[in-house]
Specification:
4 helices, mainly alpha, about 0% strand
Length: about 130
């Protein structure tokens, strides 16, 4: 059952008040929703790619070019959808509460790896006499 206009207005006011009162909590809720959406779309793209491959193979087995072309187009579209959403999951510009997956092939900054970072910290501490 949809909300009435007054209930929607009250809900929007409550959301704005919550965001003004505790912006970190509001961004946590928004970030979790964004990440869940990206994961869901990446999975849908992957499953669609497999379905498109099956359609392509089926079109090859029965000599029907239209089915093969349709399967290829489904594969192409779903691979674009999956790759785009996997990249969104890997980016560092997600909200603060969302951490990107480790070991990604996405664009990374020149931050040192965990091991190298620890070694550099140890070297700095030794040099500074700590």
């Amino acid at each position: 059952m949809p909300l009435s206009e007054e209930e929607q207005r009250l809900l929007e006011q409550m959301e704005e008040a919550l965001a003004a009162e505790d912006p970190k909590f509001a961004s946590a809720l928004q970030g979790a929703a964004t990440r869940a959406h990206c994961k869901r779309m990446a999975v849908v793209g992957t499953v669609g790619f497999i379905g498109g491959m099956a359609l392509l193979l089926w079109g090859v087995m029965i000599p029907l070019t239209v089915v093969s072309v349709a399967g290829f187009l489904v594969m192409l579209t779903c691979s674009w959808l999956a790759v785009t959403n996997f990249r969104r999951l890997m980016t560092h510009d997600l909200p603060d509460n969302v951490t990107p997956l480790k070991g990604s092939g996405a664009r990374r900054t020149a931050a040192p790896s965990g091991f190298m970072h620890r070694m550099e910290d140890r070297w700095r501490r030794r040099r500074d006499g700590h």
